[in-house]
Amino acid sequence: MPENPRADRDALAVDLPPAATVTSPADRCAAVVRDLRAMHPADDAQRALREEYVALVLDRGGDALRKGGGPEHLTASTFVLSEDLSHVLLTLHRKAGAWLQVGGHVEDADATLAAAARREAEEESGFPDVVLASEVPVDVDRHTLGERFSCRAHWDVGFVALAPRGSAIVVSDESDDVAWWPVDDLPPDAQPDLRRRLPRAVAAVVASRREV
User: Which of 33, 116, 124, 136 lies 20 to 30 angstroms, CA to CA, from 57?
Assistant: First the structure.
């Protein structure tokens, strides 16, 4: 299987204006809707859920993107894959008590969901200058949270990045550990939704490589 991260990014990309052009809450909401609609859903269930995300943002505006905007809101995460797609970088999240992909809440300074996903990936991995394979998400996943969380549910939006497995890892205060795991041998205490989401992330990169 070829390993060409730059080609992967080019194949997954669509014609979107740069995140720096998003300068207001209304612009950010418009960018979120735009990027969600640019997504290529893996199946009908993903397509239907994507439309629920769009409806939520159109209905609640900026509150749909803020942790303080209500008990349910969008979050952004990144499936950081090794360049040969054999491993995924996971964090043992302290509060969740489970292994999951890096990600978290959208902050006011994040112009787009992709920007939030990139920032969270850098903060939780210690990798500098994370480059997403595309500004367009590869999947959406809505999941309820346990009593240890102040939020009721996260409407997560997943992105993909590629990184060398030799990159130096720095464990953040939110994690007990960060490590590479084989995509076909995830830890037993991995977040349940990871097992259905990770194949979609890998498939998006494989599809992009076929188009190059």
Answer: 124
